[in-house]
Amino acid sequence: MTTTTSLAGKTALVTGGSAGIGRASAILLAREGARIAITGRNEERGRGVVREIEEAGGEATFMVSDVRFAEQCQRAVDETLERYHRIDVLFNNAGVYYPRTVPDCSESEWDLTIDTSLKGAFLMSKYALPSMIERGSGVIIHCSSGWGIQGGEQAAAYCAAKGGLVVLTKAMAIDHGPQGIRANCICPGDVDTPMLPDDAKQRGMSWESYLEGASDRPMGRIGTAEEIARAVLFLSTDASSFITGTALVVDGGGIAG
User: Fold this and answer.
1) Is residue 207 included in any domain, yes or no?
2) Is 168 domain-assigned?
3) Is this prediction's pTM over 0.85?
4) Burial class (CB in 10 A: 0-12, 13-18, 19+), 65
5) Residues 25, 91: contact at Cβ < 8 Å?
6) Residue 54 is assigned to a structural domain of this protein
7) What does the pLDDT look like over 132-175, one tens digit per residue?
8) Cβ(12)–Cβ(37) under 8 Å?
């Protein structure tokens, strides 16, 4: 069987697609031929990504949506299906982060973290799956983290959410594999996105000191959003046709030891 990385004629729905990994993934998937639906809370940034895709000859749309809320998730799926008539790839990328231990984490920070990353992935999948099941094909990718596998310091809610996504991925792969649907997750390490300098600021660290710690891994550097997007592309296409239920670590060797 010939495999391909082309997404021509397919539709990808990307949550949290206005910045960072979501933006890079939306742009790369569009470059490979997919029609792109992006959700996010920042309309100005989201429209900017759409313009970037369209100027490169692609097709995209943006919907203001907060994945914590069921009605907004359903509307995002419904509008994508109305516009493009199918969803081939769902990339659940939306997430937030607070550098907190359990005693330091407020209930509101815990809820926002869990609801955005874990509940959001559940809700988007819940509403996207019926159309995939009806067609007998589809790919769902969750954005977890290396800290969803081994844990990390001062990140209790984040680790709980990302760890939940790893096992949710496995459960969905078991449930929906017989229906022709693959479910996987990516587990990035530190990546050069707006989240990183914000984390440094919240931890009271200089950017130089933060980078020194973040790059302490076999490859000696942090990753780029484009490098993570390439992993998303791989899992989106027939190149990964026999891969489901896996947590693909993309972290420059950060948790290898």
Assistant:
1) no
2) yes
3) yes
4) buried
5) yes
6) yes
7) 999 999 999 999 999 999 999 999 999 999 999 999 999 999 99
8) yes
Question: From its phi and psi, is residue 96 left (phi > 0), alpha (psi between -120 and 50) or beta?
Answer: beta
List the domain range (segments joined by +) for residue 22. 11-193+225-241
Tokens describing residue 7: 């997404």
Query: Which residue's structure tokens are 């029609």?
Result: 35
User: Do 232 and 28 contact (CB within 8 A), yes or no?
Assistant: yes
- What is the C-alpha to C-alpha distance for residues 154 and 97, in angstroms, rounded to an integer? 10
How does DSSP classify residue 117? Answer: I
Active site residues: 158
Structure tokens at 224: 């780029």
- Torsion, Cα of 58, 88, 120, 25 (10° steps): -40
Helix, strand or coil, per DSSP, at residue 101: coil
Quote the strand ranges of 11-68, DSSP E.
Answer: 11-15, 35-40, 60-64
Query: What is the Cα–Cα distance from 22 to 28, expressed in whole angstroms?
Result: 10
Q: How many domains does one find in the chain?
A: 1
Asked if 206 and 112 count as a contact pair (C-beta separation under 8 A), the reply is no
Q: Is residue 203 part of a domain?
A: no
Q: How many angstroms separate the CA atoms of 140 and 146, rounded?
A: 19
